[in-house]
Amino acid sequence: MARVKTQFVCTACGTVHPRWGGKCDGCGEWNTLIEEGSQGGGVGGGPQALRSVRKGKPVALTTLSGEIEDAPRIATGIAELDRVTGGGFVRGSALLVGGDPGIGKSTLLMQAAAALARRNNRVIYVSGEEAVAQVRLRAQRLGAADSAVELAAETNVEDILATLEQGPRPDFVILDSVQTLWTDLAESAPGTVTQVRASAQAMIRYAKSTGAAVVLVGHVTKEGQIAGPRVVEHMVDGVLYFEGEGGHQHRILRTVKNRFGATDEIGVFSMGDRGLSEVANPSELFLGERSASSPGAAVFAGIEGTRPVLVEIQALVAPSPLGTPRRAVVGWDSSRLSMVLAVLEAHCGVRFSQHDVYLNVAGGYRISEPAADLAVAAALVSSLVGLALPANSVYFGEISLSGAVRPVGHAAQRLKEAEKLGFGQSVMPSGGEDAGMPSSMSAFQPKTLVELVARIA
Ligand code: TYD
Ligand code: MG
Question: Which residues share a beta bridge with 329?
């Protein structure tokens, strides 16, 4: 009888180890190795005998010209979604849509499915988590019950492939979720890394061979407890994350990886009683929750992908009873906050060492641009001295360690958006590209952070 060999797989990156260890050699994460039964011919490899039979034929690169730009796409007509995918789902590709449970992934994909079916695509929605009746109930709620989307409740990959082979070739297939899939080829239990990886591989192969666009849905927990999606990220052509904060109705769809387009796009949606609706102007949404100007609030004119997004940055600086004061950040990089605090202390003589500092980006939004430095610095100083910033000002600019205010890209777009939303003044770097200052706005262009601090305090 064949002995079942065990191996240890990293739940974060999928590296296989012969022995258990505290740290993964592949990605350096701690406590991510779990035991799994090994899988005969290697993941996705199949029996050795098959390999020598299959023959590949090289194709001249020149005959492939133009294929990337003209990747055949199926657009949904939902603008926020199409922008994030780079113009629609690409035929013959696989996409992973990840996000916390309950964030709205199934809702988003049912709406996408209905939109595609209405455009005469054959769409199959395979649900491994909910019964067909449940999926239909959701579709009803979304006003999509009359669409031609076909539903199936299956989790076994071989069964799913058999279902998909019936009838005309589907254009769009949704597998909700990848964690529920299992294949006869792998020995371990459903939900384990080996199963998720082998199943995803089978579905990716299906996409490539039939030309269908396949979407895999994956749950991600903050602790990374559930095995799978991180491993699948390396295998698929694109990864989208669906995010949102509890208590806020808006949701952000973010491109993390895209072999066929840009990776810094976002789509903004709002979750309502009847599903997700598009938010065409996210700045209005993020600034909508703004209270009358109070100390510690500054509006940052940011850019996400190709789109300007105005968002409020809130700082609270309060005397600390602790020997080591607290620093807490939501929505921004904490090491970046430490840097801005250090520059304010070292070059501007503003002391935070006796104060707790809290920084929050309003509306559950997350900023990755260094261009937010100036807005953060303004919010911090404003809170420390207890004086509100002018309500009609926006801020953008990067701060260097020397305290200089550095130019950032897309100034013209940032200003245009600020003008559109009725802001009258921009605090921004001098120099850089030609900003194209709107006539209704004035600019304050500090060369150093010292100049900004002097103006606030
Ligand atoms: P769902 O799409 O099932 O989330 P996921 O697939 O990511 O786990 O959506 C779950 C939440 O969305 C649930 O709490 C109910 C809410 N919801 C609405 O608020 N409005 C709607 O129209 C729908 C369909 C769901
Ligand atoms: Mg779901």
Answer: 359
Q: Ligand 1 pocket, 128 CB below 6 A?
A: no
- Distance between alpha carbon 116 and the CA centroid of its chain, in Å? 23
Question: 26 labelled as ligand-binding?
Answer: no
**99 belongs to an annotated ligand binding site:** yes
Q: Which CATH number fits domain 285-456: 3.30.230.10, 4.10.240.10, 1.10.390.10, 3.40.309.10?
A: 3.30.230.10
Please name which ligand lies nearest the alpha carbon of 99: 1
Token pair of 441 as six digits: 């706005």
The residue whose CA is least distant from atom 22 of ligand 1 is 275
Q: Is 107 in the pocket of ligand 1 (CB under 6 A)?
A: yes
Task: Answer yes or no: same fold for 73-279 and 285-456.
Answer: no
Of 198, 196, 206, nearest to 98 by C-alpha is 196
Break the chain into its structural domains and give their ranges.
1-38, 73-279, 285-456
Across-strand partners of 39? none
3-state class of 44 per DSSP? coil
Ligand 1, atom nearest to 100 Cα: 7
Q: Rounded to whole angstroms, how far apart are CA atoms 434 and 448?
A: 20
Fold classified for 73-279: Rossmann fold (3.40.50)
Question: Phi and psi dihedrals of 291, rounded to 5?
Answer: -85, 170
What is the Cα–Cα distance from 23 to 27, expressed in whole angstroms? 9
The tens-digit pLDDT sequence of the chain (457 residues) is 555 677 888 877 778 888 888 988 888 888 888 887 655 444 444 444 445 555 677 877 776 555 555 679 999 999 999 999 999 999 999 999 998 888 999 999 999 999 999 999 999 999 999 999 999 999 999 999 889 999 999 999 999 999 999 999 999 999 998 989 999 998 888 878 888 989 999 999 999 999 999 999 998 765 544 446 678 888 999 999 898 876 778 898 988 889 998 887 889 999 999 999 998 888 877 787 676 678 999 999 999 877 889 999 999 999 999 889 999 999 999 999 999 999 999 999 999 999 999 999 987 788 989 999 999 999 999 999 999 999 899 999 999 999 999 999 999 989 988 988 889 999 999 976 566 788 889 999 999 999 999 999 8
Sort 133 into a burial class: Cβ within 10 Å, 0-12 / 13-18 / 19+.
exposed
Q: CA-CA distance, 158 to 146, in Å (whole number)?
A: 29
pTM for the whole structure: 0.77
